[in-house]
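Structure representation:
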Amino acid sequence: MLNEKKEIFGVIHSYETLGATDGPGLRFILFTQGCHLRCKYCHNPDTQRTCRLENAAKNGFKVVSASEIASEALKYKNYYGRRGGITASGGEPLLQIEFLTALFKIMKENGVNTAIDTSGLEYSEKDENLDELLRLTDLILLDVKHIDSEKCKALTGRGNENFFKFARRLESEKIPVWIRQVLVPDYTDDETDLIKTREFIQSLNNVEKVEILPYHTLGKSKYEKLGIPYPLENVKSPTAEEVARAKKLLGVI
């Protein structure tokens, strides 16, 4: 039964009812609104804009309660099976910790698996609100933006120091992690960088899976619609051979 003692609201972009690529099994994918990064390869630029919750609705953003989203996600519970569940993506979901905590609390009360897709670059050791959320989280899909901090900053606008801190915290708290690396030709495919990434992954004891996500241009039309230049205009998707090479360097089986 849904707990509606106190409504907690969040700002979302949209959701997908039965996704199969963001975590195990079939999943309800919630795309939260807002991200401080400006990744050159971002395929969801429409989720980047941020807005204070109290001003969101009047500025055209979609404001929903945790119980409202939980009710929607639970409609598909019979399809989740033992492995499926809900994944909070974005945008950057860790910008709305209180909202996710309220949502995940309801999902766990109903026996649903929970996951967060995040870069970890918004992680703060001082954020005590994160403690409860992590206790309610079954899996973290941790995006490696770039193993080199300066290259990470050039690619996303931020260095990667918080990524390492967050990864080590997840390890210490024994929270399962899937590592994800977007493979962008000439940006994230350097052999030395991929080897360093593999070495870091191998230093963690909570990594269940490593995924290579080939860069694609499916989000290009969104940039055109928003009237902003596409950052990687002349970059092509990696070939099958390039993906295979990266998998070998990362130790992906």
In short: The first strand starts at residue 9 and ends at 19. The longest helix spans residues 97-109. The chain is about 35% helix and 20% strand. Strands lie at 9-19, 27-32, 62-65, 85-89, 113-118, 139-144, 177-183, 207-214.
